[in-house]
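re: that chain from earlier
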Amino acid sequence: MVLIGYHASHEQYTPRDVLECVQQAERAGFMAAMCSDHLFPWSETQGESGFAWSWLGAAMQATSLSFGVVNAPGYRYHPVIIAQAAATLQQMFPDRFWIAVGSGEAMNEHITGEKWPIKSERNARLRECVDVMRALWAGETVTHHGRITVEDARVYSRPQNPPAIIGAALSPETAEWMGSWVDGMVTINAARDNLRKIIEAFHRGGGEGKPMFLQVHLAWGSSEERIRHETWEQWRSVSFPSSVIADLRMPEQFEAMAQRVRPEDIDDGVRISTDLQQHIAWLQEDVEMGFERIYLHNVPRNQREFIEGFGERVIPEFRSTP
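^ sequence. v structure.
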């Protein structure tokens, strides 16, 4: 059975509203959830950005869903702190938590005042962080002097099974690099040829047989004009390549770049349709490509309408999928 989950967008809604959404999503039949972990929203129009880690504790207590979070250890967060936080959630809610790790974006991580390194250096730093976290989950006392510094760290409250570390990959290069040392991969919807390249690279790098997750940005509602406008209003600031997004520091910079983005320009990154059958067809293609968990992010503001509509007519189509 493929798992259809709900993506909780902290950048667009207050923590209280997002909590109510995941509760509604569970009642509607969504099988899991994941969330972002930002300090800044992508734009002032979005206007929110709650603290993911305290919210996760509340959301996991308020529902029975499994949860994942996308995180960049090593800058804003020291990896020992993330290891302790993840261990606590997994210990309280066994086998319901996973963490996706990535090399991060300057917008969220620059606040410490450290120099923002190039991608290859960020990758090397990420791998060190993951090695430290896994050692701590294994009960080791860790001292490490490298791109990150750890001295005499130990996590005492540990779960029976450590959280899965899922690699966040937006390019074939990153997917291949992560393939051998992550427990699975998560990426976002893109053109089919691009997704195939990412999957092939992940397998080539050692990821064959490991689970693959997909985060899908979409827009659905009763009026195409309205959902397209709201998608353009909410999400045009992130309609650029990840290599560009990673180096911008403030929401105002994203907004300045997005001034020339037209409503029709967002189709490549967001699946826009008022037809639920079209969304079902897209998701069936995702399943055929090998994605076993698909997390849906409805970009427009009609979250409750989306949750009800997909819960009634889309999710049942996948509950019996082999």
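Residues 3-317 form a domain with the TIM Barrel fold (CATH 3.20.20.30).
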